Amino acid sequence: xxxxxxxxxxxxxxxxxxxxxxxxxxxxxxxxxxxxxxxxxxxxxxxxxxxxxxxxxxxxxxxxxxxxxxxxx
Length: 73
Prior knowledge:
single chain
């Protein structure tokens, strides 16, 4: 089976577990890389992988927020 090189925004959203509207918002903002092919928006699969890797790396470098397991006050 041939792996797709270009994904429709819906396919990109499904691949990363987002809603279609979130994928379009990320594309519109320029955060999620995309290209225009014959008037259709496509997300390069490699660019999507790199975007996820950058996000994971950024998240790993952020301090973990503390959560309360119960109130003792």
